[in-house]
Amino acid sequence: MVENLIKDAIKKGELVPETPAHSLAHMIVLTLFGTTFYYCVRDGRLDLEAWGRDLAARLGDTIFQPYLTHQR
């Protein structure tokens, strides 16, 4: 599902065609698995909405940056 979202972004021209969709999707899924583990270990004491917003910003500034078709 995550890989398909990335591929859709490539088709829409939001990411360059050379974007490694499978590799990026794999990293995102592993990050989500880690977050789920962390959430459970902390007995649900994690603001998932804030964490999600922070993750999206960090992904945009780091691993997705070379593949963006426009600069922010």
Could you characterize the architecture of this molecule?
- The chain is mostly helical and about 70 residues long.
- The chain has one domain (about 1-65).
- Helices cover about 60% and strands about 0% of the residues.
- It has three helices and no strands.
- It has helices spanning about 1-10, 20-40, 50-60.
- α1 (about 1-10) crosses α2.
- The longest helix is centred in the middle third of the chain and has 21 residues, at about 20-40.
- It is elongated and about 40 Å long.
- The model has no long low-confidence stretch (mean pLDDT about 90).
Strand content: under 5%
- Largest sheet report: none
How many helices in DSSP terms?
Answer: 3
Number of domains: 1
How would you summarize this macromolecular structure in one to three sentences?
This protein is mainly α.
Task: Please tag this protein with its features.
single chain, 72 residues, mainly alpha, elongated
Q: How would the blueprint of this fold be written?
A:
Elements: H1 2-11, H2 21-41, H3 48-61
